[in-house]
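Ticket opened by: R.M.
Priority: normal
Category: complex prediction / small molecule

The reporter submitted a protein together with 2-acetamido-2-deoxy-beta-D-glucopyranose and asked that the result be attached to this ticket for the collaborator who will pick it up next week. Submitted input follows.
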Amino acid sequence: MTSSFLWWLRVAVIVAMAVHSSPVSTAAERAPLRSKVFHSPPFTLSPGSVEGKYYGDIGFPRGHIALKDFRAELVDEAGNPVPLHDAYIHHWLVVRYYQRKRSGAAGPPREPPESLITGNASPSKGPPEYILAGNAGTCEKILRQTFGLGSETRRTVTWVPDPYGIEVGNPAEVPAGYEEKWMMNVHAIDTRGVVDRLGCIECRCEFYNVTVDESGRPLGKDYPGGVLCCHDKARCRTGEGSGGAPRKLFMRYEVKWLDWAAGIVPTKLYVLDVTDDGKRGPVASTDEFNDCQVEYHVAPCGREASGACIDSKRAFLVLPSGGNIVYAVAHQHRGGVGAALYGQDGRTLCSSTPIYGRGEKAGDEAGYVVGMTTCYPSPGSVKVTSGERVTLISNYNATEPHSGVMGFFYILVADPPESTVQLTGRLLHSNYFWVLLGGITVASAVVVLYRRRREIGQRYQSLAL
Ligand SMILES: *[C@@H]1O[C@H](CO)[C@@H](O)[C@H](O)[C@H]1NC(C)=O
Ligand SMILES: *[C@@H]1O[C@H](CO)[C@@H](O)[C@H](O)[C@H]1NC(C)=O
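Result attached by the on-call engineer:
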């Protein structure tokens, strides 16, 4: 009786654990991976011109889903990839927002304003027209994107590994009276026929003939270049000759996703910025609380420098909440030689380096950053804790000066999956477990009694013989 009971108890525990934990291990595999290709609205670039618009309500999968991948690239009207030396992708951003639902008579919705992202929106009375969904930090005021890359877009892996996903469209999170939408910012520079390609892609103000920012404020002498000089409609200096005809381009992007299911583990996205140093910079100058300056400048190390000529910029940042890092990647511009993120105790959380192209074709353009290496730590091996002070270091080759460079780190952090001890603890607290255990105990008792009676019956039979 006792050994049989123990056997049944073991079976009961194993069955109950399997039943209880099966969604964690199999749901993500059961749901089919969906994918769809979308195009941004078209825009026209001619030699030297800059495109920097924000497009509201772009094509995007709807509903409660787990985003798994987002691949973007610039293409022409025939769908051919456009190489970076023709149209340089300074950056693109995909930003989630909520738009107030309108009654039928209200007319078509307005495009969400750029000020929504830059944080310069003036407060209005009544409920806001738009609310940014943002990410988990730590540049909440200016880096609000869910996805965003630059010239490296073609060769940077953005896959979110199983069983994780970026959860969006959760009806419980969309504010009442609003609907979830997405906008895209594309910043591209046509460098056909320009006098200085590097000067144009680094947005050096001298090549754009720009001395004031978009709203007319004078730029300081210490601002050699950056996004304030290569804004939408700015022009980079072109040489003699035409450089080529205007052409219509699109951002083509492929989204992969799963319908939301139990067992998909949601992740938090942090977008860290190496310029987040507590000082205010020109880009974020209108926002009192924002320490993220987005871009910075690399001064040349000079001829007298011996040894490595590297500009190393660092920031100490506090992560509001912790968990397992499941994916990480840095964003750097041309001249970048790598960025790394370290934990408070100095352990490396991720190191990500630029991949430089060597050829002509789109995806391999010589001298351009065509990809960034990524980190996929084996499950549970790289953790950060709530409130941990991490160090972000961004290194640039300082042989030449660089303006308007960036040092971001994207990290996806998931709550650690429940351990077996926690799972068993939760099992012992669930009614389901006790009902199952009770049922199995009764069943085993019945079997034991039945066997006894059969044995007794057989004994009588043998006696009868
Ligand atoms: C830039 O400005 C200078 C002086 O204002 C002018 O001579 C020059 O033509 C301008 N260049 C371009 C490309 O607009
Ligand atoms: C830095 O750039 C110079 C050319 O500007 C190049 O010769 C050198 O190899 C580069 N160094 C590194 C570490 O990439």
